TrEMBL record:
Belongs to the VPS35L family. Residues 43-118 are annotated as: Disordered. GO terms for cellular component: endosome. GO terms for biological process: endocytic recycling; protein transport. Keywords: Endosome, Protein transport, Transport. This is VPS35 endosomal protein-sorting factor-like. InterPro entries: VPS35L.
Amino acid sequence: MSYDCRKMAAVQWRSRGRNYDTELQRCRPEAAPVEFGDYHPLKPIMVTDTKTRRGARKGSTSSSSSSSSSVPPDPLSSMLDGTDPLSMFAAASASETPAMSHSASSGDLGRKRREKEEEAVGVDFEHWSSKRGEILARFTTTEKLSINLFMGSDRGKAPSPGSAVSEKVRTRLEELDDLEEGSQRELLNLSQQDYANRIEELNQSLKEAWASDQKVKALKIVIQCSKLLSDTSVIQFYPSKFVLITDILDTFGRLVYDRIWTMCSDPRPLPDSFTVEDVNDTAKETCLNWFFKIASIRELLPRLYVEAAILKCNRFLNKSGIQETLPRLTAMIRGIGDPLVAAYARAYLCRVGMEVAPHLKDSLNCNFFDLLGTFRQIGGESVQNQLVVQRVEAPEYLTLYSPAISWILQCIAYRAPEPLLTEMMERCKKLGNNALLLNSVMRAFRPEFVAARATDFIGMIKDCDEAGFPKHLLFGSLGRSLACADPPESERLTILNEAWKVITKVRSPQDYINCAEIWVEFTCRHFTKREVNTILADIIKHMTPDRAFEDAYPQLQSVIRKILTYFHDFSVLFSMERFLPFLDMFQKDSVRVEVCRSIMEVFIKHQVELTRDPVILNAMLHICKTMHDSVNALTLEDEKRSLALLIIGFIRMVSFGRDFEQQLSFCVEARATFCNLEPVLVQLIHTVNQLAMETRRVMRGSHSRKTAAFVRACAAYSFITIPSLSSIFSRLSLYLLSGQVALANQCLSQADAFLKAAVSILPEVPRSISVEGKLRSSESFLLDFINNFLATLLVVPDHPEHGVLYLVRGLLNMVQDYTWEDNSDAKVRVYISALPLLAAMSQETYLYSVPKVDSNETLYGGDPKFLSEINKLCETLIGQILDHLKALGRDEQSTRRQGSLAFSLFGVLLSHGDLRNNKLSQLAINLWNLSHKHGHCETRISVRTLEYIKHQAQQPSMTHLSDTVQRLTLQSRT
């Protein structure tokens, strides 16, 4: 048989009659009764049967089974013999535990492990590394600094193997003396950054010297760096200098410990919980040698620091070495004359002690009590003269102690009992309520302990000397604790009043806002909007003069965040008189937008109920407008999308209930306000369409004159807004959706206008669009839209002035004139999709309809002229499709496309054409053969199609398909 497409040219179309209700009943699956007592999909599957069978294969004589044979085994459980692997591990652990308890060695290991856990510092301890960056950033200077650099020595090289031991020792002692005899170079006029760079160079030199086995040189570098800690010539930089130099000491201590550890790890690694007995003699001798070297250092400060750096190495020598050494080093610090240098030496000793022996709290306490004794020196003549020379005020000088004192107190207060705080408070009183010490105590102990004694602390703060340490800093520290823990309820108002009396008198705007920002959280946490509003008014009063707020944006933002954390009822929030004036202080655009964004995020997260509160709406519109007005030509697309989502979230939460006109007025105002954000306009159109459908629901589909005018106003809103969108597919989809909404509300002329507008912009669709930053063909998107559009046209009645099927013809004309991609079948696929629509239009009763809208089925009532027009249009479309199939047949590369299109058209003829017509039946057969001619059609689909046709042929009205199906044959791919 020839498959020449020229034989398909003469076609006489006729749609087959459809009874949709009968077809629906026939397609419904048969209901099968299920006895839920025997089976339920959630009923657990028993796998005992599987276990029995596996046992039988191993020789078991048991043939009984505890599970029903009708229940299928679980394939996953069957692989596990019905045993949960987690349960197996738990059972194994439980069975091993009693056995281990009888083992002496296991008991020792468990005891050692428990001791180690007790001694170790937990994750709740704030390590020194977290404070390092803050200290370096806080204690800076513009003064010029100096540093002594180690110049090296030829005698630092290792002696020859033949040298005597005594010669080696003498040489090393001489090398240590070299450092004090001038083998160093002083660098002057260094900036702070240059100084830090030089210290880092020394750190690298230390590592390089150690790696090249020049241990004495490494020690000399550490000694030299330790000496720098005695220099207080630029006193305000001292805390940062301490941080930089102790980094080198930490490196040295780690290198020494690791070297000795390695010497003990031959041939087997040394366990973490090793004892002195596990250490070999060579390692002990090396360790002792290091301590002898350090003991030979003449100056107190480097000898103290370097020995503290290798304090952990005492573990290799004797069990109580650390316990004995800590008190000795603590006592050595008493020989340091400068109280600031001594304070940081104690801080370093506490730091090392917490790392190696946190359980030895006696030495920590002793360090602190010694520190208290040095406070008398601060007012002495020597210190005061030094401050005069360096032009440093007493309050600034006292703040230099805060990192050291805070660290020492943190170590003491770690997991300390509550009575220790009482003891510390008593000692503070004996010292005349030293403000610096009191501040460190409040910051070191647990907030719960401090909050319980908040009133006592306030009394102590009142008695402090204002000149030495400002009281507002003390209230700031107290506020931090009260933000984390609650004081007694009866004392809260008194605490707030007493604190604010001091805070509001602070003259410096920066100092004021630093303290006020802390106490805002306490106020929000325990009081109402009245107290918070009072706080905001006071902040505005202090920060507005001379535009002081411009230097305090981070603190002001923190105030907003804290308020939003505790106030989620926006009617309460916006009823604060000073909240919006507070927002007006954010004059910088980027900060202002960030604040508005944070407010919107909280609103969307916590506003559960729809709102019509005018206070909320006016405030949120103001906030959203601020975000919208920040958008300009330079704004990134991600930023626009983010802002649009926040504004959309607000719009979705606005509802005026049954006051639909007010809702529409809101959307009109929002459209004017947010015209630069396209996603917001799209959401507004959806909102108005939803409003029209809600009106229809309320009126139950029967509009009054007033509601009819209202839904037409909604349609007008959408019709005016859609053209302002830049995205062509947004416009297409919204035109179609709005047309469907108008049709559902019996607004026929508006529906026509929407659909005609959609057809008119089809030529504007570009051939490629950007999807996630990549160019993709727009054909698939366009075909999806056209198919959706065709489905809508079934229920759209013809306009009396525009002729029969004017929208269908207009769409097909646009498709005909559209510039498709080369070698594209999209146009023909549209034609194939239009045939089911036309076939559905020719039925006496349509598949679906719009209530109270007369479709063409009612307007024409099966008029022969109407049916004739449909048939002619179908024949024209089929002719166009066949011409395209002929053109594809001329190119061997297009046979797959030809087969696919032929099979699609065959499916349409089978489903919608009247195959009792011989020509149409013959066309269907030819299309089937053509689709299988080159073997590109999937056999599985072809077989299922034949089965469907045979099933249909059994229906009384479809017996003519029996002849057709006999002429449809499957052909092999070969």
